[in-house]
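step: validate -> pass
step: tokenize input -> pass
step: predict -> running
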Amino acid sequence: MEIASLLTEQRNPASARIDRLPTEDMLRVIADEDRKVADAVAAELPHLARAVDAIAQAFEHGGRLFYIGAGTSGRLVSA
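step: predict -> pass
step: emit ->
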């Protein structure tokens, strides 16, 4: 699978023209998209709890965690 085909690497149609929206509409788009994140996290809480427990156990045995993220790239529009 190519990275370009991943959903996380696609432009978000909801924010495709965000730079041309009135400020309040722009903020509404951002808030609506942020709400989706909270809902997605809530749906995965059982899996996240298992991961946190496994990570905590690994820490107790000298393990390490490498956390890497990309930020708000889904909201950015290239000129």
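step: describe -> The CA atoms of residues 11 and 76 lie 8 Å apart.
step: cleanup -> pass
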